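Researcher: Let's walk through a ligand-bound prediction step by step. First, I give you the protein sequence. Second, the SMILES string for zinc ion. Third, you return the three-dimensional complex as structure tokens. Ready?
Model: Ready.
Researcher: Here are steps one and two:
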Amino acid sequence: MPKKKKYTSWRCKDCEIDYFVTSAVTHTTHCPQCGDNLFTESIKVVWLERPFNYKRPWSEEEREIIESGLHLGKTYREISQELDGRTENAVRRQIQQLRSKGMLSI
Ligand SMILES: [Zn+2]
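Model: Step three, the predicted complex:
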């Protein structure tokens, strides 16, 4: 069994996403989605085996999977199942982000 470690859950109020950072970091963190630290705030300490979404930026491959999935009429859930470790909600937020940046053709 992997041992659980102490992490702090942070929220980016701008992107409305939660992410986990080792609790050794207490002052400021950068949002894994927008890279900013202006709207981040620590929420609570949690014990996790691993920080499942800590600073994992979305890759170009993932963007292509999302885009082709949308073209095929797949649901957010179906697209999230093709992406390792991404939840349906994460896919929904990422699609909003990509659209707002004009990075999706659909
Ligand atoms: Zn953000």
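Researcher: And what stands out?
Model: The chain has a mean pLDDT of 86. Residues 4 and 22 are 11 Å apart (CA to CA).
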